UniProtKB/TrEMBL annotation:
Keywords: Membrane, Transmembrane, Transmembrane helix
Protein's organism: Candidatus Sungiibacteriota bacterium
Keyword set includes NADP: no
Transmembrane segments: 6-28
Entries under InterPro entries matching the protein: WD40/YVTN_repeat-like_dom_sf, Xyloglucanase_GH74
UniProt keyword annotation of Transit peptide present: no
Name this polypeptide is given: Photosynthesis system II assembly factor Ycf48/Hcf136-like domain-containing protein
Protein's GO biological process: xyloglucan metabolic process
């Protein structure tokens, strides 16, 4: 073997060794199996979905797309909806990026694509309800093709059928409620319609037409006959008989300056109402007849409370966000602890796991 050949062989071996020892590990770390490559370390993600498994002390981003490169951290999120029968399953409702599902408490996400494209991948998904007795039966409120629509799937999102659309363009369907006792679906529309179907969307009945549009519909977990609807102006209407008669309880909020602006409503298992708003946080333990302001450790009107979550199993446990700040309470808001947020972006959505009370979810977005 000539000296030249020996030098060439030695050089090739040296370069291969250098690649294997120095370069290859960086390549493998840049594209971990099953996770997207974003050009940034996962810990640097400052927006999107985050999960805490220790009650809010530490957080991890949960934005990886299953079997694909990229992530969903920059999606505009309308809602984060838990499956009523399986806490491991979450649904992400986005503004302009369709519907996404995770079956691993947010570890991996996949888009919901039906074969006929009835649910468009660019849909603005506003609300969702899952039949607790049949987890493959979903009802999804979307805004697509300039109109609000309600879609139904009976096979877990493989195919969809449109069962309702708003009579007028530019109006949305903003909320859904599945009444498990009656097996019926109630929808709230931007045209002020509260409608109900008992045959999976084949026929509809008018519960009531309201003078203003409807943006929220809540049912009392302790008494499913008690419903609340909210309008864009912040008005609140209440019924104790599934829509037979209604009471306007809006005046009970008037003493709280800013309580009609940027409302975020939720209700706990005992029927206590909570509302975040530009004022801050208010609650009602008497079906909206009166409201009181829990002593949140920020002054009223200082920062808007943009998200509130209640523990599905533990009465009195709530978490609330004001801008990027995060607070928790175990006594219905009488006292609070400061939780550590994962980023400086405003927190817009909160969720407490129905099975693991120490598991929390939040969405932070500019």
């Amino acid at each position: 073997m000539s000296l030249r050949t020996t030098v060439i062989i030695f050089s090739v071996v040296f370069l291969l060794g250098l690649f294997a020892i120095v370069i290859l590990p960086f390549v493998l770390r840049a594209r971990p199996l099953g996770r997207p490559s974003t050009g940034a370390a996962p810990g640097r993600i400052t927006q999107g979905i985050f999960r805490s498994d220790d009650g809010g002390s530490t957080w991890e981003p949960k934005a990886w797309i299953e079997s694909a490169v990229g992530n969903i951290s920059e999606f505009s999120v309308n809602r984060l909806v838990p499956d009523p029968s399986n806490p491991e399953t979450l649904y992400l409702l986005t503004d302009g990026n369709g519907l996404w599902v995770s079956r691993s408490r947010g570890d991996l996400w996949a888009p919901v694509h039906d074969r006929a494209a009835v649910l468009e991948p660019t849909a603005n998904v506003l609300a969702m309800a899952v039949n607790p007795s049949d987890r493959r039966e979903w009802y999804v409120a979307v805004f697509q093709q300039n109109r609000g629509r309600v879609l139904r799937t009976s096979d877990g999102g493989e195919t969809f059928r449109e069962i309702y659309f708003t009579p007028g363009e530019r109006y949305g369907v903003f909320d859904l409620y599945y009444d498990r006792l009656r097996g019926s679906l109630v929808i709230a529309t931007g045209q002020g319609g509260l409608l109900e179907t008992s045959d999976r969307g084949l026929t509809w009945r008018v519960v009531r037409w309201f003078a203003d549009g409807l943006v929220r519909l809540l049912a009392d977990p302790s008494n499913p006959a008690n419903w609340y609807v909210m309008t864009p102006r912040g008005s609140i209407f209440r019924t104790f008989d599934r829509g037979g008669t209604w009471t306007d309880v809006t005046d009970s909020l008037r003493e709280f300056s800013g309580a009609f602006s940027r409302q975020y409503w939720t209700i706990d298992r005992s029927g206590t109402l909570f509302a975040g708003s530009r004022y801050g946080l208010v609650r009602s333990s008497d079906n909206g007849t009166t409201f009181a302001a829990p002593p949140l450790i920020i002054p009223p009107d200082a920062l808007p409370v943009r998200a509130v979550a209640v523990d599905p199993r533990v009465p009195g446990r709530i978490i609330a966000s004001a801008a990027s700040q995060l607070y928790g309470s175990v006594d219905g808001g009488a006292s609070w602890i400061i939780l550590t947020p994962p980023s400086e972006n405003p927190i817009t959505h909160l969720l407490i796991d129905a099975e693991k009370s120490q598991t929390l979810y939040l969405v932070a977005q500019p």
